[in-house]
Amino acid sequence: MLFTSEQVSLGHPDKICDQISDALLDAYLQDDKNSRVAIETLIKNNTIVVAGEVTSKSIIDVNTVIKGVLFDVGLDNLNTYKIINLIDKQSSDIAMGVNIGGAGDQGIIFGYAINETKECLPLPYMMATKALLKLRELNHSELRQDAKAQVTIDYSDTGTRVDTFLLSTQHTENITQNEIHDIVSQIMVDVANEYGLNKDFKILVNPTGRFVIGGSFSDCGVTGRKIIADSYGGYAKHGGGAYSGKDYTKVDRSAAYMARYLAKHLLKRYGFKYCELQLAYAIGVADPVSIFVDYDKRGFINQKDVVSYINNKFDLSPQGIIDFLDLKNVKYYDTAKYGHFTNQSFNWERE
User: Partner of 50 at 20 to 30 A CA spacing, among 36, 225, 290, 319?
Assistant: First the structure.
């Protein structure tokens, strides 16, 4: 069986937008931990549009925050970017339900964990992520910020093997494709070695043969368009709600973090091979309207008992999740790079 997952770099146009949305969220939360924020970002060429709803006592310099993200990513000519600010006040109708402890929106949310990597995340997803992290750490002067990686794993009765490793990276005019191939293929081999896997896989590096024009000058970027790269690489279901640009009262984000924590917790508590958990919420209502858990070894423990354990041990109201994961004190900007569950220092990844 072949299964493929992908990851994108922090210089991908969609991820630039995620980082801008989350940097603005952090800026509002810095002086007002109770800020309500829902911000979307669009980037095309050197024009950036930010739009959304905010209720906050904080006064921030939107342009300065955005330019800070562009600088961190490593983009050039920051002063040439045009910023259009369409951020407005949050609807009082939405605020009314949240103010009494209810969810900020309806939604179905999934969390997932699997025992095939130490991070309890799918193997091809982690390998694609690690490759891009290593590419970023390399900081090669002729390789640019926009990049994508994709890993295909062959799961068979005789073992697990890497079938295909693909990585496309933006570059300058001053480097040849052969040079890029040598650099990137070594990264692929290093990642395969890290996981004790074969190195005789198919290698694809910049399959089109050229990737000079990248980022927002080749594609339009929008917040929330990389939800699979942000989560589990396609291994698990997804409720459809993006994470970035939303404060902790939005269950699309907070409950997704809690569902991940629970899936990982249950995986280790019961020795499951995998665990997928669904939470569902109604706007303005505190407790989830449903909890569903899927896992292997169904005969080992009754699903009803697993759900009872969750209900008895954890407060899954928005406020309960905020308190348990200390979501008022998270640097959300860091979550918008290379997946929301890959960095084991995040509160929801703790043991």
Answer: 319
Do 257 and 297 fall into the same domain? yes
pLDDT digits (tens, 9 = 90+) for 137-188: 999 999 999 999 999 999 998 899 999 999 999 999 999 999 999 999 999 9
> What's the DSSP call for residue 286?
S
Report the C-alpha gap between 351 and 341 in whole angstroms. Answer: 13
* pLDDT per position as a tens digit, 63-117: 999 999 999 999 999 999 999 999 998 766 555 555 556 676 789 999 999 999 9
In a domain, 233, yes or no: no
Residue 280, in any domain of the structure: yes
Residue 225 lies in a domain: no
Residue 52 included in any domain: no
Element holding 70 (H helix, E strand): helix 62-73
What would the pLDDT profile of 234-265 be if each residue is shown by its tens digit?
999 999 999 999 999 999 999 999 999 999 99
Residues 267 and 301 in one domain: yes
Handedness of CA 180, 185, 190, 195 (dihedral sign): positive
Look at residue 141 and give its three-state secondary structure. coil
What phi and psi, each to the nearest 5 degrees, are found at residue 322?
-55, -45
Give me the number of domains the chain comprises. 2
Q: Which domain holds residue 296?
A: 107-116+250-349
Global confidence as pTM: 0.94
Cα separation, 36 vs 26, in Å, equals: 11
- C-alpha neighbours within 13 Å on the C-beta side of residue 269: 13
